[in-house]
Amino acid sequence: MPYAVCPSCDEEFMVRGNPTLGQRVECPECRAKLEVVYRNPLELDFAYEDEDDWLEDEDEDDLDEEELEAE
Ligand SMILES: [Zn+2]
After folding, report:
1. CATH value at residue 45
2. Cystine design at 35: which of 11, 25, 47, 52 (Cβ 3.0–4.6 Å)?
3. How crowded is residue 1: how many other Cβ atoms within 10 Å of its Cβ?
4. pLDDT tens digit at each of 71 positions of the chain
């Protein structure tokens, strides 16, 4: 699994799975909200403080479920 370094506290930690550009990651040490800015080597930067993005993702999941039920 790829290692990344937290830009906030310099903690080195593993990112599970196959990280993609823009993926949101939370530092397990300082709880900083980060996002993947480079994949090889894996590099993280502070994520924009945009709560709407997180809420939009949840809404999309709900819509998918409703569409499945309708059919
Ligand atoms: Zn950190």
Report:
1. 2.20.28.160
2. 47
3. 11
4. 789 999 999 999 999 888 999 999 999 999 999 999 999 999 999 997 655 555 555 555 555 555 566 66
How many domains is the chain partitioned into structurally?
1
How far does residue 28's CA lie from ligand 1's centre (Å)? 7
Q: How far is the CA of 24 from the centre of ligand 1 (A)?
A: 13
Q: Which domain holds residue 35?
A: 3-70
Per the confidence metrics, is the pTM higher than 0.70?
A: no
